[in-house]
């Protein structure tokens, strides 16, 4: 699934003699992230969590009698929405009446209309399709079972802006938010309040239909209200919170966006539905089918099979990418020096969503910055593979990178630091054959970032 662009200077550690290890640190790291992404693929997840016997559809621990509904529809959006929808159509085919989903990885899923959108920035296609989907949702009655597919990437793909906010303003504020370094929950506080779908508003549109949210989570908390900005979930944030985020992170805000949020803060526009809006959330059931731990568990098993003792550090690593990388390097040093928190051969695994505060004009993504910052300080006989599970790290064709101590030699350290300062990790890593690319482009899933740091002893 993943391949490294070029191979020079990467394979520095050898498999030690008299050990159960059967792969180099680099080989183990790449094998592990591949196993993690495969485990989180919709086909794998849905085959384990969704079954049908006669007219009874079972989703995790929930059952639905398809014969009770006049209509069964599939709507939603996100990076993996097309693949999930395609699988669902094979299960509920004879009861399925239609629907619409928006994804940047389109597949054929008749009779559901799968619309190709853009990510991470919204486009006219996203907006038009999202507005059509909302209209479709409003037409669903009490005798409709609506299966709502929600995955990472849905915040951009489900872009139905509030009145008086046009495409250019929506795109501009989205780009500013992505680059400002704010955590995802603060970003989503803004997104929810400039949308007619996010922040529980899709649930409101679907009322009184029976709604089942099928969620592939790409957020550190696993909270459905954060995934795709929570179209089916109560919103605890307010217009005032959105304005505070824009102010605190010095976001260059289009006037139409600022005025809309201010009108909301003044009480001139209804708030997004909260937990107090009980009628809105009487019908929806949200089920998280896969998240970062899905990938981490599979990656850990792969490491164990190759002779590396795995330790899952966290599925919720966040903060500035390059700073989080230094913490991971420190753990590798501790493993080698003091055999703590685990003995080598070891694999330290982590997921989550680190951020990048963009101040330069280079190209890259958080996993690439993470990898390059780590490469500057990695001890010998280690390797780090850091990827975005959807196959695209930031606005690049790379999923991330795999690095060792050989990625940055002594003569290149200053150039590597300059690349980080310019937010141009992609160029440096590409020149040094460290970028990881998905052989399939979009992987078909999105459960956030996945990082595997493999460690042998110092004297291997």
TrEMBL record:
Pfam families: DUF4147, MOFRL. Residues 347-449 form the MOFRL domain. Residues 31-262 form the MOFRL-associated domain. Residues 9-21 have a biased composition (Polar residues). Residues 1-21 are annotated as: Disordered. GO terms for molecular function: glycerate kinase activity. InterPro entries: GK-like_C_sf (IPR037035), GK_N_sf (IPR038614), MOFRL (IPR007835), MOFRL_assoc_dom (IPR025286), MOFRL_protein (IPR039760). GO terms for cellular component: cytoplasm. It comes from the Archaea. PANTHER family: GLYCERATE KINASE. This is DUF4147 domain protein. It comes from Haloquadratum walsbyi (strain DSM 16790 / HBSQ001). The lineage of its organism: Archaea, Methanobacteriati, Methanobacteriota, Stenosarchaea group, Halobacteria.
